[in-house]
Structure formats: structure tokens, C-alpha cells
Amino acid sequence: MSNRPLAAAGRLVPLLRAGLIAGIVIAAAAYPLVALTGLGAKATAHAVDQKTRVLKTALPAETSYVYGPDGKTVLTMFYEEYRQYTKLSDMSPNIQQAIVAAEDSRFYQHHGVDPKGVARAFVSNARSGGSQGASTLTMQYVRMALRDSATTPKEVQEATQQTSLRKVKEMRMALDLEKEISKEEIMERYLNSAYFGHRAYGIYAASEIFFSKTPKDLTPVEAATLAGLVKSPSEYDPADSDQKEATGRRNYVLDRMSQLGYLSPDSAAAAKSEPIRLKLTTPPHDCAAVAEKYNSWGFACDYLKNWWSAQPAFGANRLERMDNLRRGGYRIVLSLDPKIQEAAERSVGTKEATGSPFANGIVLSEPGTGRVKAMAVNRTYSLDLADNPQSSNPEAGPKVKANYPNTVAPLLGGGDLAGYQAGSTFKMFPMLAALDSGMTLSTSFNAPYRYKSAVYDGWAPSNASGAMTGQQTMWSGFGKSVNTYFVWLEEKVGADRAVRLAEQLGLRWRTDVDREQASPAKAKKWGAFTLGVSDATPLEMANAYAAIAADGRYCEAIPVQAIMNRDGTPATYATPGGLHREVAKPRCRQVVSADAARAATDAARCPTGDTPARGSCGGWSTADSVRGTVGRPVAGKTGTTDSTRSAWFVGYTPELAAASFISDPDNPFNAVGDGQSQIPIKAVSEALRDGLKGTPTRQFTPPSDAIVG
Asked: What region holds the Glycosyl transferase family domain (predicted)?
């Protein structure tokens, strides 16, 4: 055997130390393919076998798409690497041929490692002192797959570091991989994994970003341009003002395509004479990229993110779940109804009333499913706060911006904001608890103007008006919002029972004060709970009242109607009992009896000017215009806080529940005033009317004789 290769290998030791050439190139050139069983291969055999099993099924990160309810309109995307996996059959042969010409001309002849290529690289590097590699497409794919499947920084480093050992592993795995899967599958995986620059990972993204077309429609010129990018996406970027390097690289690929018989010499010459014509596209990313036409939908998108981060189905913790959203290739269909959403937007003036410190928002939820059908607020969903005025909160610094006209804060709920004091809308909870405990709608009390509570240590609340004084039942007490009646009723049923019921209906306590008052040690004495001193969000209140509309069946709020995995199957989660259920399916449970819920609804028709099925409202109500506006059976409740710092209305029909508020999110002490307390009433009335227009009118089911009393 000639000792010339050995001598050459010795001369290259200094180059090895400089990291210019991987040791495997030298070893493989000196002993053709002997290196695959040497240079530490035995020591790493177990690890390589494990990695090979991963590579057989490894899938690169893929973009998740968020669609409108039609399942077709793309609202936005979430991605760490913009990529959509594409089958080889949906790619033009031009790109397959171009990538072979650019990166591995003997791809269809070798078995994962190309001895001729290794030898050629060795000789070239020995002569020039360069660092020409010898990686086949299969070896490059192995490297990308190991990188993409890495779960720790160490694994990422091992997959990409320039060492002899890594090269040995790469070659061994390439050989093993080609025993397992076909050249066509390797080509498909490669083209879906390669990086082409401009955040374009995979051929689908590259085709769209650079040429605004699909991979199936790539011409030879376009394919050669993209194939040329893989070697050095920044150096050969055709989007640069100077396309000299990109054109030179493209022409090299075209020449190679001609030499390999993919193009005729004349076709290659004609293609080389063409300039690079780009049609650049910037794919949307995250909620702030929702198109202007659907700007109001940004708040629902933001709620989707917060909801997603709380779902164990998508990971063990918030970080892992959000990582899966950006890498998992999900297809997510929002639950918003375009007709109801448009009605909601009109009701709060999202297009014209954004210049007020007072946020007027509304959420509509579907009874029986918990699906959110609309979310709208008089704000523009935007990260750009440059033109926002200074915050109305005097305790905020001079550089703190207000939340209007632009904001991405979760003002409607679903995030970490506490919400707003909901006032007398909370009277629903002690009434419902009382009904579910066996009390009747006819439960009567001679309510004074002021009531001193012995249970709540002498606390003495009063009514908003002397006209509320007198004998009241649940119908009249709820319709007129008689504070003293409900404090008395809460005493009878127990404030702690009302608090626990509110929790069962989805309310959460987000301030230190609310958490303390709701604790088992304090809840029995929380008399003011019935007056709505706790913060709540419109999302929570709409969903809680939706449970009453659904005969006491509470369904968790959910922003989606479908979530599909990248393979087209529904995303699922495991129940404590081991059953697998679709994540997007409603999650419901019976919280109170159907009869108790129907009785509460009968009383809740009184505030709206509707006529209850079984009792008397006592002659007047707090929102008697609602029934006339909605034009169908409707129930609900008004709510205001001290000095009208915030105002609410929560209303529902058998088909839809809505909660609207008006308040200053920056400064809760900035009172909206009595003059604006009708705004939420109007918003809910119009949203229900317009959102249900054209749908059959349904009637509420009357309560039983037993619960009427």
C-alpha cells in the first residue's frame, strides 16, 4: 500500500488544530470508509443507534396557523422557524434537480456517504489550504435533524460543532438512514429542513417569501436561485440591492444542472441571461400581525395564546406549551362568529371610539359549549404606543403611556389583568346559591333602605334609592337591584357558598384583597361579595351567565372550535381516567340543578323589562329597555360600583350570553359617571339583537312549581 495518503494526512495536522478540516475527511481519504468503524465509532455506537432511531421519525419545527371560523381565512401564524411541511409530490422537479446540482451531484449514486466526494475534498483542501466539506445531502439532513430534535444546549452543540467525532457520527448515521428510508424521503425531509435565509425554513417558506408562490410552481431559474442559497443564505441573498453574488451563485447552479443533464445547454444559457425577479412576501407572525381588516380579532388571538399556555395537552409548563405552539405545526380554527363579532364591534364602536381613557368592551359566549363568539373593545390592537397619551393614573410615572388608542393588554379577560369591579351583577351568585339550596323565588323580605347585618359584624349597606324599600321577592329584588334584600339573602345561604359557586362558574380572584376575602377563613364574612366589590373580567362574567342560560351546565371558556395536529388528526389530551379527548371539544359540568338555573333566569328577566314566566317584577327595573331592543326573551343584570367608577351589564338569551363593561383600566378611581352607565346596557342589547338576527327565537324554560314557592 502506498504511504502517500498517510504522509498527506500528517502534513494536515496543523490544519486540523485550526479547525479548518474535520478529522474524518483525512481519515476517510486515507482509509476509504475505514473511518466509519474507527476514530471512536465503537465508543459512540450506542449513542449513534439512539440518534438513528430519532432520525427515522424526526420532523422539523413547523408553523402553526390560526384560521377564522371558516377554516380557510388565515388570521396569523406562530412560528420560531417559518416552515410548512410539503410533500415531494407537491414540489417542482426543478427544485429537486437544482438542490442536487448545488449540493450533492452524486446523491442518487452513493449510499449516504460519497467516497469520491470525500477524496476530492481531501485533495482540494490539501492543495489550497481550504475547508471544502464532503457532506452529502443525507449527511446535511442528519445534521439538521439532530439540531432540530435537540432538547438541550449540549445536544445542539454536539449536532453542529466542527469536530472529527461529529463527522464520524454524521457519516455513520447517514449510512444507517439510507438503509431505512428511500432517497425520495431523504430529499423531501432535506428540502423541508434547509434554511434559505429571510426566516425561510424549508422550501415552502422559501418559495413564498422570495417568489410568492408554492414549490410546485418554481421555474428552473427560481429553483436555482433558491438552491444556491443553502450554502450561504446571507452571502447569496437575492434580496440585497446588489444581486451580483446571488446571480453568480445561481448561474453556477444552472451550469451544474446542465452538466448533469437536467437542462439543455441552450436552456441553461437562456436562464443565465435572465435577471433575478423577486416577489417578496413577509408572512404574518403572532397576534400583532393580524390584518387590519381583522384588527379587533387580535384580542381573541391574544386570548388564544393565554388559553393555550394553560393547557397541559401542549406541554408540562407555560414555556414548553408556547414553544410547541411556535414549532408544532398546528391548524387552529377560532370559535369567533363573524356575524356576532361584527355586531360586537359596532356595539362598542371599535372603529370610531378608541380615543377615550374609558374602555368599553364586550364578550359573547355560547351557552352549552363555552365557545367565545365575539370579543371587542374600543381600542386598536397594536404594539405601537408612540401616540398614546400619558396614563390617567396619577401614580404612574410621566413616561407611562395610557392604554388608548393602541394596546395589546388583555382588557377583556383571559390574561393576568384582574378586571374591574362588577357591581350588582354579582347578585346572581347568592341568588343562584339560594335557589340551588332549596329556597324559592317567592322568598320574601321587607327590605329597609339601610340594613345592619349581625352576621357581618354590624356592616350596614343601603339601597341606591328609597323607592326600593319594602317587601321584596327574588323577582323584584333582582329586577330593582335591592342591596339590602340581597345582603339578607346572602346571610341566609352563606356568603362562602356564594363565593364557592362563583368559582365553580369560572371566576378567579387575582388581587391580594380578593384572594384573602375568598379564602375559607374569610369567605363566610365577605358580606360585600353580593354587591360586586371583587374584580372580574367580561370573559368570566359572560361565561358564568352562559351557564345559567344552559340550565346550570357550566362549560369552560374556549377560544377555538378545532385544533388539528400537523398530521391532520385532532389534538387531544388525557383525562385523569386515562381517556383521550379532543382539546377543542367543550368541557362542561353541571354546577347547579336545571330547575335552580331556570328559576334564576326567571328572576333575571325582570331587570331587562321582559316578563317572567311565573312571578312579578314589582313594577319597574334597572334596564327596562333591553327587551324592546333585543326583540326576544332576554335575561340579565346591571351593575355599578361606588361613584360609578365602572358600569356593567350582563345579558343572555337561550342562544347567547354577553357581558359588557365601561371603566378606566389604567385608573379604577377615574369614575365613568352616571351619564355613561347606560353604555354597557346598550352594547349588550344591540350585540344580542344584531348577532342573533335571522335566527329562530327560542323561549326560556319556566321553573317548576316547587321552586317558585
From this structure: 74-257
Given this model, what pLDDT does residue 27 score? 41
Residues in the chain: 709
Using left for φ > 0, alpha for ψ between -120 and 50, and beta otherwise, residue 261 falls in left
Percentage of the chain modeled with pLDDT above 70: 90
- CA dist 381 and 681 (Å) reads 24
| Domain architecture of the chain: domains with CATH | 83-273 (1.10.3810.10), 420-552+591-692 (3.40.710.10)
Which residues are CB-neighbours of 76 under 8 A, at least 6 positions away?
66, 284, 285, 286, 287, 289, 290, 301
Give the up-direction half-sphere exposure of residue 465: CA atoms within 13 A in the CB hemisphere: 8
C-alpha cell recorded at residue 58: 424526526
Contacts of 320 (CB under 8 A, 6+ apart): 314
Phi, psi of 446 (to 5 degrees): -80, 90
Cα(144)–Cα(146) distance, rounded to whole angstroms? 5
What cell was used for 285? 407572525
The burial class, CB within 10 Å (0-12 / 13-18 / 19+), for 475 is buried
Render pLDDT for 295-323 as a digit per residue (tens, 0 to 9): 999 999 999 999 999 999 999 999 999 99
Q: Which of 145-159, 440-454, 585-599 has the lowest mean pLDDT?
A: 145-159
Place of cell 347567547: 656
Task: Quickly tell me which residue has 482540494 as its cell.
Answer: 124
pLDDT number for residue 352: 65
Is 648 strand, coil or helix? strand
Q: The dihedral of CA 18, 163, 112, 7: what is its sign?
A: positive
Q: Is 20 left (phi over 0), alpha (psi -120 to 50) or beta?
A: alpha
> Which tens digits make up the pLDDT trace of 483-498?
999 999 999 999 999 9
Q: What is the DSSP letter of 421?
A: E
Give dist(CA 320, CA 373) in Å, integer: 28
Over the chain, what is the mean pLDDT?
A: 90
Beta strands in 170-302 (DSSP E): none
Question: Which of 59, 66, 121 has the alpha carbon at shortest distance from 336?
Answer: 66
Neighbouring C-alpha atoms within 13 Å toward the C-beta of 176: 19
Asked if residue 200 has pLDDT above 60, the reply is: yes
Please check whether residue 562 is in contact with residue 570, taking contact to mean a CB–CB distance below 8 angstroms: yes
* Whether 424 contacts 681, CB under 8 Å: no
Question: pTM, whole model, 2 decimals?
Answer: 0.87
In angstroms, the CA 411 to CA 398 distance is 22
- Find the helix or strand (DSSP H, E) in which 331 lies: strand 331-334
